[in-house]
Structure formats: C-alpha cells, structure tokens
histidine kinase
Amino acid sequence: MTKDMTSPSDHAGGTVAMAVLNAIQNPVVMVDESGFVVFANWEAEAFFGASASHLARYRISTFIPFGSPLLALIDQVRERKAPVNEYRVDLSSPRLGQDKLVDLYVAPVLSEPGAVVIVFQERSMADKIDRQLTHRAAARSVTGLASMLAHEIKNPLSGIRGAAQLLEQSAVDDDRALTRLICDETDRIVSLVDRMEVFSDERPVDRMPVNIHSVLDHVKAVAKAGFARNIRVTESYDPSLPAVYANRDQLVQVFLNLVKNAAEAVGDRPDGEIMLTTAYRPGIRLSVAGTREKISLPLEFCVHDNGPGVPLDLLPHLFDPFITTKPNGSGLGLALVAKIIGDHGGIIECDSQNSRTTFRVLMPASKDASLEDASIASSTGPSR
C-alpha cells in the first residue's frame, strides 16, 4: 500500500509559486481541457471582477465575448502544443467593460494534457505611453522646423513687409489694397512662426508644489470673462488632492488652451456645459528607462464638454502638430499642450464618444507628497 505524501519542500515550492503568480501585475489564468478556469491570480480576479472560486465554477467562454479570438487561440495551442501570442485583441463586453484591448500570451501546460495558461496584458496604459512618446517625437520635429523657420523665413518676411509699406505710400487706391494684403499675410505668417518657436524653447522651467485648484479657478475666471462668457462652467474637485510638482504659468497655459477648445466645441448650444474635475487615482506607475525608479501619476485633472465630439479618425493624432478640427486653426495648440505635459513627466489623452469629450491629464504629485505617500505605505507593512 502506497501513501500519497507531499514533502515539506513541495509545500514550500507551491507557496512560492503562488506568491510569484500573485505578484505578477498581469492577469494570469489556467484553463483545463474542458475549458474550466482552474487557477486565477489576484490580477485576474480584478480583471474579470470575480473571485477565483467563482471563476472556477465556469468555463472561460462564460467571461469572454462570443466569437472572441481567444477561444480559437486556446484550441490552436492545444493542437500545436506550442505557445502563441496575439496582439490588440478586443475583449470589450458588458461584463468586462468598455475598451478592454489586450495582448494575449497562451501557452500549453505540458504536465496537464489539454490545459493552457493565458496571460493578459492590458493595452490601455501601454497605448497611452506609446502615444505620449509619439507626441514628444512630433514636438521635437516641430522644434527643428521652428529653428529653421525663425532664421530662413522671418528675416525675408520683414524685408517683404517693409517693401510693401514703402510701396503703399506711393500706390494708387487700387494697388494700396494689394500692399495691405501683403502686410496682413506676412504678419499672419510671422505670428505662426512665433507660435512654433515656443517648441524650440528648451530652457529649464522653475517648478514647485502647485495647488491645481487655484490654477483651475484662475482659468475659469479668465474663461468666464471672455470666450466662455455664455457657457456654463462647473467643477467637481477632490479637496484633499496633494500639490502637483509643476510650473504654474505653464499649467495655466495648458488648461486655458483645453478650456478654450471645449468652449469652441460647445459653441452656441443652449445646453452647452464645461466641467472641470480633479481626482486622486493611485496605481498608475511608470518605469524610468535606465533606472529602477518608478514614477507615480496619481493626479488626474479633466476638462469635459458636451460638444459634438472629435472625429474618430482624428482621435489618435489629435496631439500631433498641424492637426486641427477648426477651419482656421493652426493645429499647434494641443501639440504644445502635449509637449508641456510631457516635459512635466505626465500623460494627456482624449476620450470622445456620445457627444461628450474628455481631456484627461495624469501628472506626478509634488515630491513632498510622494514622500508622504511612501511613508504611509511603509508604515502599513511591506507589500506582498
């Protein structure tokens, strides 16, 4: 008679394996040959919105949208007995929520015939970072263009304008309108070049802990006194929000630009409304290349409007230079906003659907606030 005994080392190994799987910041599930979920780590519980014991009662197909490529991938891995990757798979559903875009890694479990392990990598934050890097690269290209324009265009334009003014003094009335047109157009081009020169300003800016609510109140006052005079502007602030480590003048420039865009989108609609919101969203941490440091972006500032929204084809390129939805726009306002936020180590994104547009800015807290958060975390014990 043999006894099925498990050694202490096996118990220890199983405990370590569980600790490792639960420490992984991606959802990991194991599916048996019948399709039932036999294991789910902590991130998987959060991803599916159900406990591991609840997940174990059902097949994986219960939680995945009908016709999802994931089910075909599982069959493919079982057949080939080899791992498969699939990128940008849409798992959006009423159960999982909207915008569930994931990368999938599916691998067979050789010790368990028919069983597979599935690792989900959510694309939302990866896409945000990727878009932000694209915006920065685009801003750098404008920087080079601005430097060239300043020397190669502004100087000849000043000569052309001066010559047009001299001609205007001796021109007849019919020709004077043409010389006036030349002056107006040269002024317009110089103004555009001046706006682009902002991108080439690489001087370090003074940063300090800034109360974002005082910035937003200032922006609201300026807006109500001018371009948003007839638009309802409301706010929903988190009063306990820590300070943001930033340059106050540049933050005013950013949010003034965003609120002005919102006001132009709302236009003359009688029910037009702009809402300013702030919130603390812990959990978003970005790794810094070349170091072990991680930057936290817990501060969320939003500008909402109920205008017609941004066309879907423009949405991915909205922060690129020279992209605009306005008939007479230069397309540099939002590019400059993205550059300033990027220089502060933050992220900006736009979500537009169902006649509601939200510009969301994620930024790091002041260093003092970050140290305070770290001390609170350490006092509660190490994370496991």
